[in-house]
Design brief:
The complex is a heterodimer of chains A (about 475) and B (about 450).
Chain A (H helix, E strand, L loop, with lengths): L1 H10 L22 H8 L5 H26 L3 H25 L6 H25 L4 H26 L9 H4 L7 H30 L1 H6 L4 H23 L4 H13 L5 H25 L5 H19 L5 H31 L4 E2 L1 H11 L3 H13 L3 E4 L2 E4 L1 H24 L4 H11 L5 H13 L14
Antiparallel strand pairs in A: 1-3, 2-3
Chain B lengths: L7 H27 L3 H22 L4 H26 L3 H23 L8 H6 L20 H6 L2 H19 L1 H9 L1 H6 L4 H42 L3 H29 L7 H19 L5 H30 L37 H10 L3 E3 L5 E3 L1 H23 L9 H7 L21
Antiparallel strand pairs in B: 1-2
The chains are: A mainly alpha (about 475), B mainly alpha (about 450).
Chain lengths: ~475, ~450
């Protein structure tokens, strides 16, 4: 489904008539048939396409796994600097290899150069942080732009001066997925395997360093070494991704899947799994779309696919998604407001013994005190009636039996916590009410029991229902 | 000797464009660096791309106003989106920024590929390093003298005009709102409390950054934009502690990088007998080199200065310790001061050399050894050689040592009486604090260990 949403979004152009007059907005794409789509997605659309799809899927997988640790170490943007810093290495490696009489375009040589300057860039960031008073943001920006500028200078030097065979070096900037060979795909596979293996072996160590490196150090773990392993894996994935998606976008493959996965789970190993799946899915769908449609550079399509997953996760994920979060917040708000209303009615019952009725005027006063809007009041009354806590009695509201029990419970919690604060936390009796108001809703059963025990030891006894005769 | 080839037709407008772009980014960058928002400049310069392309596709025109609008909108949208992702998704700021700008950039690249079918002059590579060479002026006069004429104004390319206007506006913005920007940069809360909305200023700054980015974009490319937003401001920050000076310096440095980088791009390869390299990249490189120079040699915050300061401090501390030790030895009278070895061992237990109070640097070896301190003390006339090869304090040395020991014991007194430390815990702290200069004229007369305060 995602794939079609994507394809629609990115390829929708007005007037898809092939013979339409020339206009920039009229870029016509041949739409692939269903059979072609199916063939591509099931990896039967020719050897090259299959190689590319498998390679990018594996790359996405590896980047997802490694990206999690970069995200948790707050290194997302350092990887951006790292990937930009690989460019001069590519150019210099080409020059060095050519000078030594080796084929300057051999991929291992270029990637070696990329690794060297990439690591140098990271070292420079650390040096700037340690030696100057500049912040991390400035250090990252400086390394990113200066190294990339150096890269541009090197490439333009090669373009202007090197004899031949220089073409293709700047494919590393935007990536050239179509050029992926079986060996490259195997390389991606190897890196993915290494990333997964390292994660399986060192998950405990990685999570320890990610969540509390000071504790890890005190506990005797070689934190710098573990950190170095994580960073080395990031470098590995970045360099491997250079050819496929280009150095400008490889950072997105490291950042977006883990950030998206973060919305789905709170557990680290699940986070790794989900991020790997999202990364692999983006690689798979992105390169398939790129293969099916003309003029869709694989790098950006892969990144945009993960972007779609990100937006979906941000909005709909059940654990930390915006919808789920707002829904939970709304329910909490209604529960608290319901507690307040029932409590107020119950106090009324205690004062006048009328079974807990609130007149319109009293309700309006309560709403003003609590800051409830008119709409909220209506919704609240509806909800409480549906829960069977209140009933209409003429123009007033009255608590039901069920509602009185709830009111008694809330009042009791309130009193318990109030007593606790006065007795144990040394807060003046006149100051406790407001803070109690916040806490009374979240007291759990075991906590209430413990409070009762503690207060009883001090000789403070809270009546079963304050002011409520028979509730 | 590198000859500097300058050809009015080939070099005047490209260089002007580079300098104007550098200056407008440089002046705005100060506030990004101060507010730790440098990467927002990075993010904006990436995500301006889809704004440009969309504005272009919608209007099918390359009118600067439309492009400006699109890019400025994209810039503000980036800021808003980053905030949104941060708040709604509870995502770490760096990651939120990374997600937003890489996605927008990917969108921009895709759209460019779509549009490039019909329009050759939208090219993804130009986005990175610009098109300075297209600004060449083919009918340029051969000499500088002929440049002063009305025809020159007509020949100025559109990009240069746009850049000049942007540069003027950016500088005017910073000059007019300097006070407000300064407060907001250092204390956003205070700015808001005083009635200048820090948020509004923040967005205004972002609009200007976006505008400068897009103006510079076409001529010099996004890489130079990022380099110029961050490097000159960071360099200036290492050179001064005053914001006003920093802003002026950053503009000067930006212009220096622009001119230097542009000339170096053709002059250095020419000296080696090669063809010239990309000017935008070279300017970024020069800006980086200037920063390295500042890191090493800045008079106030450079490595060399820090090292010298550290060395002077450790020498002073060693000297202080030496004469204080001699003073104490004379005071106790257990050993004949004339037999005192150059390595002072005044207390029953040997004590470690006190570490200098700042830890940013390794203590330079040699500067603080007792032997050197002894030589220095002799040279300054604080100490003279005794008959048996030992050291004896001179009159001025005694005075200085008394003041030092007084400070030490006053601190010990204070730490015990006022700070409530036990008497056997105060020596180490006092050992550090005694080197601070001022000491009160009167006060207690004995230290917590019962020794007299001189």
């Amino acid at each position: 489904m995602l794939f079609f949403a994507m394809a629609m979004a990115i390829a929708q152009q007005p007037g898809r008539d092939v013979h339409a007059p020339i206009s920039i907005t009229n870029v016509t794409d041949e739409w692939p048939g269903w059979a072609q789509v199916f063939e591509t997605l099931t990896l039967r659309a020719g050897f090259n396409t299959t190689t590319v799809i498998v390679g990018t899927t594996l790359l996405g997988l590896a980047a997802g796994v490694i990206g999690v640790f970069a995200l948790l170490r707050k290194r997302s943007l350092m990887t951006d600097a790292l990937s930009h810093a690989t460019l001069p290495g590519i150019g210099l490696a080409f020059l060095a290899a050519t000078a030594l009489g080796v084929d300057g375009r051999s991929l291992p040589v270029l990637l070696l150069g990329a690794t060297v300057t990439g690591v140098l860039g990271v070292v420079c960031i650390q040096a700037i942080l340690r030696l100057t008073r500049l912040g991390e943001d400035a250090a990252i920006g400086i390394v990113l732009s200066v190294f990339f500028g150096a890269g541009i200078v090197t490439l333009s030097y090669i373009q202007a001066n090197a004899a031949a065979g220089a073409a293709g070096l700047n494919h590393f900037i935007y990536g050239q997925t179509a050029a992926m060979s079986v060996r490259d795909a195997a390389l991606m596979g190897g890196i993915a395997a290494a990333a997964i293996l390292a994660t399986l072996l060192f998950l405990k160590e990685f999570s320890l360093v990610c969540f509390n490196d000071a504790f890890a150090r005190v506990d005797g773990w070689p934190v710098s070494l573990i950190d170095l392993v994580m960073m080395a894996l990031v470098v590995l994935v970045t360099v491997a991704g250079l050819q496929a998606v280009g150095l400008l976008l490889v950072v997105a493959m490291l950042i977006v899947p883990p950030v998206s996965a973060r919305f789905w789970t709170e557990r680290l190993w699940l986070l790794v799994v989900v991020a790997a799946l999202i990364g692999a899915l983006s690689g798979y769908l992105g390169s398939a779309v790129s293969a099916l449609l003309p003029r869709k550079p694989a790098g950006s399509v892969i990144v945009l696919t993960s972007g779609v997953v990100f937006v979906i996760s941000l909005v709909f994920a059940p654990t930390r998604g915006v919808v789920a979060l707002s829904w939970r917040r709304l329910r909490m708000r209604f529960r608290i407001a319901g507690d307040h209303l029932v409590e107020a009615a119950f106090e009324q019952h205690g004062r006048e013994g009328n079974g807990g009725t609130l007149t319109e005027a009293q309700l309006a006063r309560l709403a003003k005190l609590r800051g409830w809007s008119a709409w909220f009041r209506v919704a609240l009354r509806w909800m409480l009636r549906r829960q069977g806590d209140i009933e209409r009695a003429g123009t007033t509201l009255r608590l039901t039996e069920h509602g009185r029990a709830r009111g008694a419970r809330v009042a009791r919690n309130h009193a318990l916590w109030e007593q606790y604060l006065v007795t144990y936390a040394d807060i003046a009796p006149s100051h406790v009410d407001w803070s109690v108001d916040q806490v009374e809703h979240v007291l759990s059963e075991p906590l209430i029991a413990e409070l009762e025990r503690a207060l009883r030891r001090r000789g403070v006894v809270i009546a079963a229902a304050i002011g409520g005769g028979n509730a | 000797m590198i000859s500097i080839p300058f050809n009015i037709g080939l070099d005047l407008f490209p260089m002007l464009a580079a300098v104007l772009a550098a200056a407008s980014c440089g002046v705005l960058g100060n506030f990004l660096v101060l507010r730790r928002l440098s990467l927002m400049g990075d993010a904006i310069s990436h995500s301006v791309l889809p704004g440009l392309v969309i504005a272009f596709l919608l209007t099918q025109a390359r009118s600067p106003v439309v492009m400006f609008g699109g890019a400025a909108l994209a810039g503000v949208a980036t800021v808003v989106l980053v905030e949104l992702v941060k708040k709604l998704g509870r995502v770490e700021p760096g990651a939120a920024m990374g997600v937003v700008f890489s996605l927008l950039f990917a969108l921009g690249v895709l759209l460019i590929e779509q549009a490039a079918v019909r329009h050759v002059d939208l090219d993804a590579d130009c986005v990175l390093h610009g098109q300075l060479e297209t600004l060449a002026w083919y009918s340029a006069p051969a000499t500088w003298g002929e440049l002063v004429s009305w025809q020159t104004l007509d020949a100025v390319p559109r990009q240069v005009v746009v850049l000049a206007v942007t540069c003027a506006l950016a500088i005017a913005f910073v000059v007019v709102l300097f006070k407000e920007l300064r407060i907001a940069a250092f204390d956003p809360g205070l700015a808001t409390a005083q009635g200048y909305s820090a948020t509004l200023l923040h967005y205004l700054l972002m609009v200007f950054v976006a505008a400068a980015t897009v103006a510079a974009f076409e001529a010099v490319g996004s890489i130079l934009v990022i380099a110029m937003l961050i490097c000159p401001a960071a360099t200036a920050r290492l050179l001064t502690d005053r914001l006003r000076t920093q802003v002026v310096l950053s503009v000067v440095l930006a212009v220096m990088s622009g001119v230097g980088g542009y000339i170096a791009a053709s002059a250095v390869p020419a000296a080696l007998g090669k063809d010239s390299v990309n000017a935008a990249g070279s300017i970024a490189l020069v800006a980086g080199l200037l920063l390295v120079v500042a890191i090493v040699a800045s008079p106030s915050h450079g490595l060399v200065t820090k090292m010298l300061r550290q060395r002077a401090l450790s020498r002073r501390v060693a000297l202080d310790d030496l004469i204080a030790a001699l003073y104490r030895a004379a005071e106790v009278g257990t050993s004949d001061p004339t037999r005192q070895q150059p390595q002072p061992q005044p207390r029953p237990q040997p004590r470690p050399q006190p570490r200098p109070p700042t830890q940013t640097f390794r203590t330079p070896r040699g500067g603080g050894t007792p032997r050197r301190a002894a030589r220095l003390a002799v040279r300054r006339g604080l100490v003279r050689q005794g008959d048996g090869g030992g050291l004896i304090l001179t009159e001025s040395g005694r005075e200085l040592a008394a003041a030092l020991v007084r400070r030490h014991r006053l601190w010990e007194r204070y730490l015990v009486d006022r700070a409530g430390l036990p008497p056997d815990h105060v020596h180490e702290t006092a050992e550090l604090l005694e080197h601070l200069k001022p000491s009160p004229a009167d006060g207690p007369t004995t230290d917590p260990h019962g020794r007299p305060i001189p």
